[in-house]
Each structure stands twice: as structure tokens, then as C-alpha cells.
UniProtKB/TrEMBL annotation:
Keywords: FAD, Flavoprotein, Oxidoreductase. The keyword Cytoplasm does not apply. Residues 12-371 form the FAD-binding domain. This is FAD-binding domain-containing protein. SUPFAM superfamilies: FAD/NAD(P)-binding domain. InterPro entries: FAD-bd, FAD/NAD-bd_sf, RIFMO-like. The keyword Glycosyltransferase does not apply. GO terms for molecular function: FAD binding; oxidoreductase activity, acting on paired donors, with incorporation or reduction of molecular oxygen, NAD(P)H as one donor, and incorporation of one atom of oxygen.
């Protein structure tokens, strides 16, 4: 619920969330769903009006479904019958041409294909096109109704002092008056220029790329989408236009040369000059300029996602910044928060140990490194070939309606199409694994499954996301029968292992749900083992040995203590 702070009455809370963007609000919501009160502060008085993220990945949509957010978010996205087509053109003004097209199926088509195959290699939920403007507004409405969340809008974080037991933060109210908040933990979700990060002395070197944008409405769809419907259209002169809603809302981004002091000036002129491309100005009718601005697409990863004293955590852009290539930015942040929140709640409730909190940075930072590598690869294999090859061939030749012009366009197309993978990263999005995590019990009996950028290989290898499989009724996912915390999934006939896990867990105070599904032989074949321990975030903590489901009570105890961070990796 929205509130006002009294400067004369310092607040105390277990968890302070700094930053009311999508990651911060998601973290606060997830904490409240897990029964944990928290405070969230945001320096702005309202959610964003700027067109930032417009893509939620398969994995992110699975998470939304898992926490009950899907039905509030999906209906306000681009309708599922629209695909994710990318166009590469010379512009839409004068004698311009569409050079290449990468078509992708719609979520509607994906659902049917995935249900028919049901081989574990696909996500439960397809990705979604939705502006961050819409998503943040939805989240704010939700968190302000949550009784366990105190939200303060227009309150700016200034600094923190961390000791072994708590963190004392200084916040300024809308009038600039300093207020103190004492918390046991802080989650810094305050963006690329994070004051939480700098206050905690966590380093994050940055590599900025500057862009200008205009977010606008136009009913001139026939001119803007002259080459057909698109999600993104990249223009050879260094711009990208995003179709935000398949109705009349668009965002046009243009790269600014390094060091240039660029101002948009007349936004309508900016639109028509940029959209015109090589062939000259376009004549798009602009109905409304919603907002204009400049932004930096940074490339950076914080040196750690947890402070040295252990009470300050970073998530989202405060922890890692990526250019939009591949769509990893906000999605990574949501997954950060999903990983961190259950661990914080476990520790605050007494059944999680410090290794659980230490695992956050050890699990999520390598994922940020992987995503950064994918962005660098995308720039090297898609963005640079598109622009450099265009200049090498010559703009006049590329738009010439001649045989020589067609040859030039074919060469340019051949340079672009191999980069189709950049927005087809199922392997990157769903296949990352928390290898080396202190709370994952490694499987020494079998080799690690293969990895791929575009293909997800289903496996219950410890540290991997457990595969989604529809059960024998054809409509219930194995995900849907998980409990709210740990789940011990048991495919054996007797179900003795899951019951023993439940009994030992009860004695340790660890919340666990026994999922006994002996009849699900198809799912068992994909899951590879008879007994699998799944964490609250859907990742595998442990699995039994091939052909053997039996574990002694002492072994089960060690497994559970390791998975909850109360036992070191040397103990199992």
C-alpha cells in the first residue's frame, strides 16, 4: 500500500527494496507472497513513461504463471496471434527496399506445436510482447494492494551504512527531508546508476552506447509497415523501430555517434528523417508524440551481487546492464529477484543458512556473464555485419533497381540471416545451469548434458531448470503440481523416498511437498531419474543415482541441509 514516512519516526524492516521499477516491484511482490513484509522506496512519484523493455522471455512468462501474475499481465500484451518478425530495410522513404526478413511463429502457433511434441524441450509459456510502461503500471497497482508491502513513491535513496547485523539507509522524502530506515537486508534494484551499489562499494565498470528515441502514435500503419507486420525493423542508417502494440504505438531509436552532443529538436522531423533511411525523408503522419529522450545502452556486470558484509544485494540493472540485443535485460532482473527472494525468506524464517544467500551471486553472476557474451556475439554477428557490409557495398548500389543492386542486396541479406539466432535463444534463456553453486548437489554419475544457444536440452542435471512436461491428462504441467517451497518429485511405485524426504524435512523445519506421480512414465523418461529434489525457483537441487532411489535418513538430512545452505559443499 502507498504510504508517507514520518521523519521523526525511523522505520525498521527485515527487507528494504530500493527501486520501484519492474525488478524492485517484482521482488517486493514475491516477498509478500512468501509471507515476508517489506518496504519499497522509489525516487519517482510514478512508474515509467519511457519505452524501455518490450519483451518478456519464455522463462519470465513461466515465472509469472508460477506466482499467479500471468493472467494479469498476458491480456495487456500484444495479442498472441502476432509473431516476432524482424525486418531489415534501407528505410521507407523514396526508393527504399526491404532487404531481409526473419519470421518467427506467434505464441498461438508455438502453444500448439509445443503441446503436440511434449518432449520437455519447450517452455510452458511462450514469450510476450509488452511495453515496460504497461508492465510497471500493472505491478504498481498490485503491490499497492498488498498489506505486507509498504511502498513509498517520491522517496529517494541516498546512502547506507552496513554493519554485521543490519543496514541503516538514508532516504529523502519528496520535500528533501532525510529519513532513516533500518533493515536486516537491502535489495538494490535502482538501475544502472545504482546508489545502493556505489554505497556498498561494489564496482561496476561501464561501456556506454548512446541512443536517441521518440515514442509516438501514428495511424499511418500502411506507410510504417509498408513491408508487412513487424516486431522490430532495423534501418541500414543506424536505427530501429519497434511496433509496441500492433495498433498505433511505436518507438524509434537512433544511434548517436560517440561524443556527439545530439538533441532531437523537432521529433516529427526526427521520425521522418530517420525512417526515410537511404532514400530520403518519409512522410509519416504523426498523431501524438508521447515522449522523447536519450539513453545509454550500457554493458557492465557488478563485481559481486552481494556486499562484503553480506546484507546488501543487487538485482536487475543495478547488478548488470546489457544492450537490448537478445532481450536479456529486464528478464535477467526478474530472474535475479525470483532467485533471491525465496532465499532471503528462508533465512529470515530460520530454515535457510548463509550459504543460501552466498549462492545468489554465485548463481546469478555467471548468468549475467553468459548473457553479456550473447550480446557481444549478437553485435559482432548481426549489428556490425549489417552496418559495415552496407557501407562497403554502397548505399546507392543497394537501393538501385538493377541487377548489380540485386546482387548487392543478396550479399547484404546473406550477411544478416545467420544472425536469426539473436532472438531465438531458447538454450540461453532456459538452459543456463547453476554449476558450482554451494547449494546444488552435483551428479557425479553422468556427464553434463550439452548446451546450445538456440536449443534447450531438457535435463534434471542438478543446477538446471527442471523440464516442463504435460502430464498424462494433456493439460496439467509437472510445474503445476509443485508445492510452494521445495518439492520432492517421486516417480517410484511405492513413493517411499518422497515420504522419507518429507519426514526428514519436517524434523528440520524445511517446507517441502511430496509429489508422488508413479503413473507419469512419459515425464519420468524425460526427467531421467526416479527421485528429484526441486527448489522453490524450479531448479534442481539434487537427483538420485540411476536405477537407485533409496537414500538413508542421514543422507537425506545432508542433502536437505546442503540445499538450504546450512551445510557446506564438503559435507555431501
Amino acid at each position: 500500500m502507498g504510504s508517507q514516512l514520518n521523519a521523526e519516526a525511523p522505520l525498521e524492516t527485515d527487507v528494504l527494496v530500493v527501486g520501484g521499477g519492474p525488478v524492485g516491484m517484482f521482488a517486493a511482490l514475491r516477498l509478500s507472497q512468501l509471507g515476508q513484509p517489506c518496504i519499497i522506496v522509489e525516487q519517482n512519484s510514478h512508474t515509467t513513461i519511457h519505452p524501455k523493455m518490450e519483451y518478456s522471455s519464455h522463462r519470465t512468462m513461466e515465472i509469472y504463471r508460477r506466482i499467479g501474475l500471468l493472467d494479469q499481465v498476458r491480456p495487456k500484451g500484444v495479442p498472441e496471434n502476432y509473431g516476432f518478425t524482424e525486418l531489415f530495410s534501407t528505410g521507407i522513404g523514396g526508393p527504399n527496399l526491404n532487404v531481409a526478413q526473419i519470421g518467427r511463429p506467434s505464441p498461438t502457433d508455438l502453444r500448439k506445436f509445443w503441446a503436440d511434441s511434449n518432449n520437455g524441450s519447450h517452455p510452458l509459456e511462450p514469450h510476450m510482447r509488452q511495453s515496460q510502461i504497461i508492465f510497471e503500471a500493472i505491478l504498481k497497482q498490485i503491490i499497492q494492494k498488498e498489506p505486507l508491502i509498504q511502498s513509498y513513491w517520491g522517496y529517494a535513496f541516498q546512502s547506507l551504512v552496513e554493519d554485521d547485523d543490519s543496514v541503516l539507509s538514508t532516504i529523502c522524502d519528496p520535500s528533501g527531508n532525510p529519513i532513516s530506515i533500518k533493515s536486516r537486508y537491502i535489495i538494490g534494484c535502482d538501475g544502472a546508476g545504482s546508489k545502493v551499489r556505489s554505497s556498498a562499494n561494489i564496482q561496476s565498470p561501464r561501456e556506454p552506447l548512446n541512443l536517441a528515441y521518440v515514442h509516438f502514435r501514428s495511424s499511418d500503419k500502411a506507410k510504417i509497415q509498408v513491408y508487412g507486420d513487424f516486431w522490430h525493423m532495423t534501418i541500414l542508417t543506424g536505427a530501429v523501430i519497434v511496433a509496441q502494440d500492433e495498433v498505433d504505438t511505436y518507438t524509434l531509436h537512433r544511434m548517436i555517434p560517440p561524443g556527439a552532443d545530439y538533441e532531437i529538436g523537432d521529433p516529427v522531423k526526427f521520425i521522418n528523417e530517420t525512417m526515410g533511411g537511404i532514400g530520403g525523408h518519409s512522410d509519416i503522419k504523426v498523431d501524438e508524440i508521447i515522449v522523447t529522450g536519450k539513453w545509454q545502452a550500457d554493458m557492465s556486470i557488478a563485481s559481486s551481487f552481494r556486499s562484503e558484509k553480506g546484507r546488501v544485494f543487487l538485482a536487475g540493472d543495478a547488478a548488470h546492464q546489457l544492450t537490448p540485443a537478445g532481450g536479456h535485460g529486464m528478464n535477467s532482473g526478474i530472474q535475479d529477484a525470483y532467485d533471491l527472494t525465496w532465499k532471503l525468506v528462508a533465512v529470515l524464517n530460520g530454515w535457510g543458512g548463509d550459504n543460501l544467500l552466498d549462492s545468489y551471486s554465485k548463481e546469478r553472476r555467471p548468468v549475467a556473464e553468459l548473457n553479456t557474451a550473447m550480446v557481444h556475439k549478437g553485435v559482432a554477428e548481426v549489428v556490425i555485419p549489417w552496418t559495415t557490409k552496407g557501407h562497403e557495398l554502397g548505399f546507392d548500389k543497394i537501393i538501385a533497381r538493377t541487377e548489380e543492386g540485386q546482387v548487392a542486396r543478396d550479399v547484404l541479406r546473406d550477411a544478416i540471416l545467420p544472425g536469426h539466432w539473436m532472438h531465438e535463444q531458447d538454450g540461453t534463456v532456459m538452459g543456463y545451469r547453476y554449476n558450482g553453486s554451494p547449494i546444488v548437489i552435483a551428479d557425479m554419475s553422468s556427464p553434463e548434458p550439452p548446451t546450445s544457444i538456440t536449443q534447450y536440452f531438457p535435463s534434471t542435471w542438478p543446477g538446471a531448470r527442471a523440464p516442463h512436461v504435460f502430464l498424462s491428462d494433456g493439460k496439467t504441467s509437472i510445474f503445476d503440481v509443485y508445492g510452494p517451497d521445495f518439492s520432492i518429485v517421486d516417480f517410484t511405485a511405492a513413493g517411499e523416498s518422497s515420504q522419507r524426504f518429507a519426514t526428514v524435512a519436517k524434523g528440520l523445519g524445511i517446507p517441502i511437498t511430496a509429489v508422488h506421480v508413479p503413473q507419469e512414465r512419459h515425464c519420468r523418461a524425460i526427467w531421467e531419474r526416479d527421485v528429484v529434489l526441486v527448489r522453490p525457483d524450479g531448479f534442481v537441487a539434487w537427483r538420485c543415482q540411476p536405477g537407485g532411489a533409496g537414500s538413508s535418513d542421514e543422507e537425506i538430512r545432508s542433502i536437505l541441509l546442503r540445499a538450504t545452505g546450512k551445510l557446506s559443499s564438503n559435507a555431501v
